[in-house]
Structures are given as structure tokens and as C-alpha cells.
Write a structure and sequence with these properties.
Elements (H helix, E strand, L loop, with lengths): L4 H6 L7 H9 L36 H26 L1 H14 L1 H4 L5 E2 H8 L3 H13 L4 E4 L2 E3 L2 H4 L10 H7 L2 H7 L2 H7 L3 H6 L3 H6 L2 H25 L7 E5 L5 H9 L4 E6 L1 H4 L2 H7 L6 E5 L12 E5 L7 H14 L5 E6 L1 E2 L9 H13 L6 E2 H10 L2 E8 L5 E7 L1
Parallel strand pairs: 4-5, 4-7, 5-6, 7-8, 9-10
Antiparallel strand pairs: 1-3, 2-3, 8-12, 11-12
Helix pairs in contact: 2-3, 4-7, 4-9, 6-7, 9-14, 14-15
């Protein structure tokens, strides 16, 4: 905290703000994160008065530097306040994106630019309100306004269309939709108790709920396929799947990733394994990808067992849905089905051992998503992955990074 003027004229206790005051003396921009500042003598202060000793040194200063110091520290606080405000406002753009996806605005603009009046008429919306929505999305890089009140698609908005390769519409509807919104509204209680919101809200886990709600299950499957689409090429580029004769995608959903792997490796066969209600959407996708003849569809529950006969077992974004005990059960069931020479491939985000600003930010947010939606679910560090693999009878052989937030963990039976 800044003391009163009399106290400041006597001395300033220099701790993490030391660089800030050094910058003032040098006449530089006042950024407390700088490490290149050095104190200089001026006509009012002798060199001996500017002692660059420990962080507890007291620095004599004049009235001008007091004013600049206050401005510097006030500026730092303003920036911090703006950052907090931006973070708190994130929910607004999330729901704005959801509204545009739900209204099908991107599909309506597929034929060319339209005014808000025409869009509102086609979407069944209020023209003035829709214009306000679109302006906000334009400001965040979704859609463009190429003339006053005339909107068109850009690269981001194009992916909100239903029928384009790599569409993210389902992912937006699921991630920013009403069910997710309802669950996140109670995140505070999850932090207090350690229990997932989903069981308090619905009395069952998310997969049991999907099994009883066909519409939600279909949206979930489409969303997972949408999430997988941008990962496929980087994963295929980073890891050589051609060395396997048969890959079992355990908990593979609609088969988006497996289909892409098989399409890129014509000699490889596949087994797609998931719950019956999830797998119903897989055949059309496999057919469309031209790999249906090389992919066997098997339904079942990976807590009870997995199909035998593959030389690679793939788990993509499966283990983070479960606590350690249940994750070990899934891996152990893979181990039982595997030959001694087979390989286990885990595709997940890996948390750093120590949290740092900006690093792995997406992984930490997904970790909170697991806290809300998946009882016991969590993202894990490398050492935590090693622990559950060892408990299930595996040895981690290597970690393969990709150009995306996910990595490939390769393991073999110990």
C-alpha cells in the first residue's frame, strides 16, 4: 500500500515495486515487471543515496517521483481491474455465441451478406436485438459487418454452419448451452464440497443422463466429434499409426478420430467401442469417411471389459471423465484385452506440475469443467498419469507432443 506523503518523502520500502521506482528515476515507462532498470543519480541526489542493496532497501525520493509512483501503481491497479472485468465478462460472449448458433445465423448467411432486418425475419428474431448481438460478435472476431448493418461470414462464423467440414456449431451449443449453464451456476458448491454439480442437479452422472435423453445424447456426440475434428490432423502428423494392424478406439463416440486415422492409414483396421446410445451415430460418419469396411462397431461398457484383438488401444479424452479408481479400472480392462506386445495410447491434456500464468490455461478450465460435470473427473499431470498407469500394470514409454493442447501418452504392459 502507498503511505501518506510525509512518509513517502522519508523513504519507500522497496519490494516487488522496486523496478517501478527505478524506472521513475531513469525516466522510463513504469512497469513493475521490468528487470532491466538501474538507478541513476540526479542533481538532487548523490550516488550514495541510491543504494541498490536488498529488496528491503529504503530509497530517498522527491515530490515528483512520489506523484509518478502513485500514477504507476494506480496504472498497475487499473490494468489488473480491467483484466478481472474481462474475465468476468466472458460469460456474455459465450452466451452470445450460443444465441447465434441456436438461431442458425451462419446458415442464413451462407448465401451471402444480409442486413439485420432480413436476418431477423428469416431467424424469427427481433431485428434491433439481433443487430446488437451481431455487433458484439463482430467485435470478437465472429462474423463481419462489411457495410453499415450488413453482415457476412468470416472464417470463424463459417464453422458455425451445420453442414461444413469441421463445423463447431454442436460444440458451441453443448459448451455454452442451457445444461452447461445450469451446472456452472452451482460451481461454488462443488468447490466447497468437492462433489460434482451434475449429481446434485440431476441425481445421476452425465452419461446416465444422456442415455435417457436422446436429443442431449445426439448433441453430445456431435459436440465430441466437433472437438475431435481439429485434433485429428495434428495427432496423425505427430504420431505414426501406420505401425499397427488394428486400432481399438475405446470410448470413441461417433468415431471421428478413428475414421480420420483409418483414412490416413489405408492398411490399418479399426474397432470402435462405446455405449449403445452413443454408437448409433457412428455408421453414417464411418461411411462418409470411406472406412466403414475396415472398422468394426462394438458396443459395451468399458468398466466391464473391452474388445480383444487389437494391437493398439486408444483412449482419447476418456480418463479425464473419471476419478483415479475408475480410470485404473478402464486401463486395467484394456490391459486384460491386450497382447503383451500391444500398445496403449492415451490422448489427453497434461497439466504442468506447477501452475503458471497463461501456460495450459485451457487445460485448467477443462479441469474445472470436469469438477462440475464429471464426479471425480479431472485433468492430470504427467506424474499422476504415471501413477495410474503403474497401478494398472503399464509402463509409460514416451510422451509425444502435438501442435494442439493435447499430447499422446504411449504405454506398454509392464
Amino acid at each position: 500500500m502507498i503511505a501518506d506523503s510525509a512518509e513517502l518523502r522519508t523513504a519507500v520500502r522497496v519490494d516487488r515495486r522496486r523496478d517501478c521506482w527505478e524506472g521513475i528515476v531513469m525516466g522510463r515507462n513504469c512497469d513493475p515487471r521490468r528487470r532491466d532498470a538501474r538507478p541513476l543519480r540526479d542533481e538532487h541526489e548523490s550516488r550514495s543515496s541510491l543504494c541498490a542493496a536488498s529488496s528491503d532497501v529504503r530509497w530517498p525520493i522527491n515530490d515528483r517521483s512520489i506523484d509518478k509512483g502513485r500514477k504507476c501503481l494506480d496504472q498497475a491497479r487499473v490494468q489488473a481491474a480491467l483484466m478481472l472485468r474481462q474475465l468476468a465478462f466472458a460469460m456474455r460472449i459465450s452466451r452470445a455465441l450460443y444465441a447465434a448458433a441456436q438461431l442458425g445465423i451462419a446458415d442464413l448467411l451462407a448465401g451471402g451478406p444480409m442486413t439485420s432486418d432480413r436476418l431477423a425475419l428469416a431467424a424469427g428474431a427481433d431485428a434491433q436485438s439481433l443487430r446488437r448481438l451481431l455487433r458484439a460478435l463482430v467485435a470478437y472476431g465472429v462474423f463481419e459487418e462489411d457495410a453499415p448493418d450488413r453482415y457476412c461470414l468470416n472464417a470463424a462464423a463459417e464453422l458455425l454452419r451445420r453442414d461444413v467440414p469441421g463445423s463447431q456449431r454442436a460444440a458451441v451449443l453443448f459448451t455454452a448451452g442451457d445444461m452447461t449453464w445450469q451446472l456452472w451456476a452451482d460451481v461454488l458448491e462443488s468447490v466447497r464440497t468437492g462433489h460434482a454439480v451434475v449429481e446434485r442437479a440431476f441425481g445421476k452422472n452425465i452419461f446416465e443422463r444422456h442415455a435417457q435423453n436422446g436429443e442431449e445424447s445426439a448433441l453430445f456426440g456431435q459436440a465430441m466429434a466437433a472437438f475431435s475434428a481439429p485434433l485429428s490432423l495434428p495427432l496423425i502428423a505427430a504420431y505414426d499409426f501406420s505401425s499397427f494392424s488394428c486400432i481399438a478406439d475405446v470410448g470413441g463416440g461417433t468415431g471421428r478420430l478413428l475414421a480420420d486415422i483409418l483414412a490416413a492409414n489405408p492398411e490399418v483396421r479399426g474397432i470402435l467401442f462405446d455405449l449403445p446410445d452413443v454408437s448409433t451415430a457412428a455408421p453414417p460418419l464411418l461411411e462418409a469417411s470411406g472406412v466403414a469396411g475396415r472398422c468394426k462397431l462394438v458396443t459395451g461398457n468399458f468398466f466391464e471389459g473391452v474388445p480383444a484383438g487389437a494391437d493398439a488401444y486408444l483412449l482419447k479424452h476418456v480418463l479425464h471423465d473419471w476419478d483415479d479408481a475408475r480410470a485404473i479400472t478402464i486401463i486395467s480392462n484394456c490391459r486384460k484385452a491386450m497382447a503383451p506386445s500391444a500398445t496403449l495410447l492415451i490422448v489427453e491434456r497434461v497439466l504442468p506440475e506447477r501452475a503458471e500464468q497463461g501456460r495450459a490455461a485451457e487445460a485448467y478450465l477443462v479441469d474445472l469443467e470436469m469438477l462440475v460435470q464429471a464426479p471425480g473427473g479431472r485433468e492430470r499431470t504427467e506424474s499422476e498419469f504415471q501413477a495410474i498407469l503403474s497401478a494398472a500394470g503399464f509402463t509409460m514409454t514416451r510422451i509425444v507432443p502435438t501442435t494442439t493442447p493435447v499430447i499422446v501418452i504411449e504405454a506398454r504392459p509392464a
